[in-house]
C-alpha cells in the first residue's frame, strides 16, 4: 500500500517564497532569543564550573536527588546516573559544591556517601572544548560539500550545506527558547541532525539527477524538481515519521539524562525533513533562475 499516490502533484516549489519567509522568521526569532540569553545558552561544558561525582551506600533515584537540590534552588542542574548499582551520580554546576554536599548530608542519609570526584572545569578547558566542537562541525560541512559536489554538482552541494545550516540554526533557536543549555550531548545531537538532513536531501537530489538524465533537453527545471520531490515524498515522510516515533519514546521514557538530547533530535529531524522538501531544492531553483545553468549529469 502506497502512503502517497503515484499521481500526486503537489507544487512544493511554487510556494517556496512562503517557506523561505517562514524559515527566515524562525531563524531570526531564534537568533534574537539566543542573543538575549547570552552565556546562559551554554552548559558548564562550555563555560566552566565544577563536576561532582558521589557514590551512596544504598540505591537512590534521580528524582530524590532533584527533590533534595530543589530546596537550595539547584533542581535543574545536569545530573547523570553512572554505574549499575543505581547509587552513583555525576552532576555539573557553577555553584560551590560544599552547599550540595551539605544538603546531601542533611536530607539523604547523613554521611552515608562517598565523594569520588570534585573537580573544576576551567574556563580554558571549556574554551578548548568549544573550539574543538566548532571545528568538528565545520570539518563535517566541508566534507559534505566536497562529497555532494563530486557526486552531483557544486550548486547542489552549496544548497545542501545551506539547508544544514538552516536546520542547525532553527534547532538552536528552539533550544534557546525552551531554556535547554548546549552541552556536549547537544553538540553530538547537532552533528547527527546535520547527517540526517543531508541524507534526506541527497535522496531527493538523486531522484532529480535521474529525471534530468531521462529528459536532458528540458528547460522547465521547476516542474522537473517538483515531480522529483513528489516521487520520493512517501519515502521521505515515512522515514521522518518512524524516526520521530523512536525519538518520542526516548523523550518521554528515556529519563532526564537524555531528555534534552532527544528534544534536540526531535526538532532536528522534523526541521530536516521540512528543509529537504521545501528548502534545499528550492534554493537550487532560485540559483538557476538568477544564473541560468545547464545541469551536467
Automatic annotation (TrEMBL):
GO annotation terms (biological process): intracellular protein transmembrane transport; protein targeting; protein transport by the Sec complex
Molecular function GO terms recorded: protein-transporting ATPase activity
Pfam families registered for this protein in UniProt: Sec_GG, SecD_SecF_C
Domain (Protein export membrane protein SecD/SecF C-terminal): residue spans on this chain: 106-289
Cellular component terms (Gene Ontology): plasma membrane
Membrane topology: Multi-pass membrane protein
Keyword Transcription: no
Presence of the UniProt keyword Membrane in the record: yes
Subcellular location: Cell membrane
TM region(s), chain numbering: 18-36, 133-150, 157-179, 185-205, 232-255, 261-285
Keywords from the named record: Cell membrane, Membrane, Protein transport, Translocation, Transmembrane, Transmembrane helix, Transport
Subunit note: Forms a complex with SecD. Part of the essential Sec protein translocation apparatus which comprises SecA, SecYEG and auxiliary proteins SecDF. Other proteins may also be involved.
NCBIfam families assigned to the protein according to its UniProt record, in alphabetical order: 2A0604s01 (TIGR00916), transloc_SecF (TIGR00966)
Protein purpose: Part of the Sec protein translocase complex. Interacts with the SecYEG preprotein conducting channel. SecDF uses the proton motive force (PMF) to complete protein translocation after the ATP-dependent function of SecA.
Family membership noted in the UniProt record: In the N-terminal section; belongs to the SecD/SecF family. SecD subfamily. Belongs to the SecD/SecF family. SecF subfamily.
Protein name (Swiss-Prot/TrEMBL): Protein-export membrane protein SecF
Record organism: bacterium (Candidatus Ratteibacteria) CG01_land_8_20_14_3_00_40_19
Amino acid at each position: 500500500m502506497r502512503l502517497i499516490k503515484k499521481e500526486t502533484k503537489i507544487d512544493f516549489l511554487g510556494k517556496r517564497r512562503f517557506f523561505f519567509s517562514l524559515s527566515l522568521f524562525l531563524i531570526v526569532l531564534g537568533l534574537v532569543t539566543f542573543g538575549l540569553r547570552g552565556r546562559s545558552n551554554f552548559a558548564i561544558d562550555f563555560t566552566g564550573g565544577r563536576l561532582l561525582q558521589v557514590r551512596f551506600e544504598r540505591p537512590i533515584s534521580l528524582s530524590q536527588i532533584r527533590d533534595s537540590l530543589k530546596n537550595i534552588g539547584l533542581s535543574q542542574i545536569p545530573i547523570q546516573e553512572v554505574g549499575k548499582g543505581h547509587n552513583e551520580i555525576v552532576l555539573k554546576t557553577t555553584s560551590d559544591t560544599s552547599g550540595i554536599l551539605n544538603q546531601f548530608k542533611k536530607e539523604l542519609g547523613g554521611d552515608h556517601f562517598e565523594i569520588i570526584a570534585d573537580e573544576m572545569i576551567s574556563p580554558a578547558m571549556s574554551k578548548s572544548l568549544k573550539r574543538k566542537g566548532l571545528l568538528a562541525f565545520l570539518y563535517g560541512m566541508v566534507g559534505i560539500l566536497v562529497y555532494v559536489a563530486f557526486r552531483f554538482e557544486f550548486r547542489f552541494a552549496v544548497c545542501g550545506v545551506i539547508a544544514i545550516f538552516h536546520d542547525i540554526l532553527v534547532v538552536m533557536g528552539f533550544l534557546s527558547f525552551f531554556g535547554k543549555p548546549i552541552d556536549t550531548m547537544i553538540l553530538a545531537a547537532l552533528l547527527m541532525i546535520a547527517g540526517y538532513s543531508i541524507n534526506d536531501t541527497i535522496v531527493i537530489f538523486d531522484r532529480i539527477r535521474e529525471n534530468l538524465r531521462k529528459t536532458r533537453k528540458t528547460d522547465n527545471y521547476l516542474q522537473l524538481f517538483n515531480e522529483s520531490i513528489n516521487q520520493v515524498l512517501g519515502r521521505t515522510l515515512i522515514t521522518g515519521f518512524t524516526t520521530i516515533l523512536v525519538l518520542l519514546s526516548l523523550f518521554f521514557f528515556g529519563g532526564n539524562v537524555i531528555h534534552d538530547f532527544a528534544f534536540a533530535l526531535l526538532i532536528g529531524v522534523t526541521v530536516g525533513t521540512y528543509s529537504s522538501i521545501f528548502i534545499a531544492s528550492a534554493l537550487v531553483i532560485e540559483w538557476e533562475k538568477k544564473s541560468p545553468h545547464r545541469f551536467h549529469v
